[in-house]
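Side project, low priority. Logging it here so it doesn't get lost.
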Amino acid sequence: MQALVERIRREGRNLGGGILKVDSFINHQLDPQLTAEMGRAFARRFTQLGVSGITKVITAEVSGIAPALATAIALGAPMVYARKKRPITMTAGYYSTQAPSHTKGGVVELIVSPEYLRPSDRVLLIDDFLATGQTIAALAELVAQCGATLCGIGCVIEKTFEGGRQRLAHLNVPIVSLALIESMEGDHILVRNP
């Protein structure tokens, strides 16, 4: 997605340790027009790949919510986000798994209520980053726990040098990224369209 690639080139910052700072338009402050275009781009690309009948879009809180919601709107499907802490309102059973957090350090628990993710669902997984693939693998595990069908994975930004796509190959679903980061060295971020 050219607008996204250009924005990363202008505003993205390499913080070292594999961390790409894009919080001026994705992770903290959001650009609504860019976010809406991301949702349309994901919907268009998955449709081109033959992915259809999506009944749920899933992501992890917090940074995946905006692109997942934009995608859900474009597809006309509800969006569910995996919580990192069980709220007191979640009184029944729940699905849970753990995922390491690169930006927060440590491990987080991801939780989804069975009220909102069912065996009959056809699920599209959307997140802000694909790096090592561990968060996405954890979300895919939640989808599997409830017996739903994972139909595709969409990532706003993929850091190709971290090997996440290869680690997710066993899921046998299309993986779509809107921008590819090939390297980050010093102030230089090599980014391109997929």
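Brief comment: Helices lie at 2-11, 23-27, 32-48, 65-75, 134-146, 164-167.
Revisit when time allows.
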